[in-house]
Each structure stands twice: as C-alpha cells, then as structure tokens.
Amino acid sequence: MNDRANQDPSVADTADGEGQVEGPRFSYAVGALDRSLRRNLVSILRPFELTVAEYTALSLIRRRGGYSNAQLARRSFVSPQAMHEMISSLEKRGLLERAPSESHRSMRHTHLTTEGRDLLERCNVAVNEMEQAMLEGVSPERRAEVISLLLQSARNLRDIPASD
Fold it and tell me: Is the per-residue pLDDT at 4 higher than 80?
C-alpha cells in the first residue's frame, strides 16, 4: 500500500490481476452516495412533511401491505419503538390504517389510505426526478447491474456477525 492509502481511509490499494491499482474503497463510495442521497431525499420530502424513514415505510406498505410493525422496522432501518411511534403518527395524519391480522390476533397489519397513496405518488414523482438526474448517462443494463451488486453486498453483510 502506498503512503496516501495508509493516510486516507477513502483510498485502498486493490489488486487488479496485474499489480496494485489505487482507487476509492467500495465502502467509501457507498457511504458518499448514502450521504448525498439522504441529503437530497430530506430536501425533496420536506415539502410533503415526511421524513426519509416515513417515506420508506409508506413505500414498503404500498408495495406489499400487511407488514407487522417489527417487519416494517427491520426493512426501514429503524428500531421497533421508533416504528411504533412513526406508524401512530402516520395513522393520526390519515395516511395509513391498521387492521387486525387474520392469522395472529395480537398482530395488526398496516395499509395505506387513499390519502396516503396520493401523497406517496406525489413523493415518488419528485424522487424519480432525483434518481433520473443521479443516474444520467447510465444505461438501464448498468443500472440493473449496480442495483444487483448493492443488494448482494447488503445480503453478504447481513451474514457477517456484527462485532460489539
């Protein structure tokens, strides 16, 4: 490894089969994208009075209703307690409703209301515009490859035990 890579965590020496090539770490690039994406999403969602976590939860519910609060929390990257509060808040705003599960008496499934679907659709238009700008010049095939790579990376990390 060269001196720059030793000093800068964003730079890694990676083998390319013909020697060492300096370049950004994958984790650094993903982190930089995450920060930029989050900043843009916060800005886009502010006029709709939604947080990124609320938008994520509404999107998940729209895609496949019937999630429990625990399932929504895992998929939205928030704690079960935070999800419970978020669901209560969104329900009070009339964006979703909960109904008892047919299979589990103690579980309630969450579904979007008409108002929730309408708000989510308006948000999606704005998010789609941001994603189009972000992926300008990237072919649909490359987009699919990148999505596949990122999802596979996330699955691989889930399989690694976290150290305390």
Answer: no
Give yes or no for a contact between 110 and 64, defined as CB atoms under 8 angstroms apart.
Answer: no
Residue ranges per domain, the chain?
26-155
- Residue 119 reports pLDDT greater than 70: yes
- What's the mean pLDDT when you consider all of the chain? 85
Can you count the helices (H) and strands (E) in the chain? 7, 4
Structural contact between residues 108 and 100, judged by C-beta atoms closer than 8 angstroms: yes
- Report the CATH architecture of 26-155: Orthogonal Bundle (1.10)
Between the alpha carbon of residue 33 and those of residues 10, 29, 38, 85, 156, the distances in Å are 13, 6, 8, 28, 19
Q: Specify the pLDDT at position 124.
A: 97
Torsion of CA 65, 95, 39, 5, to 10 degrees: -20
Give the pTM. Answer: 0.77
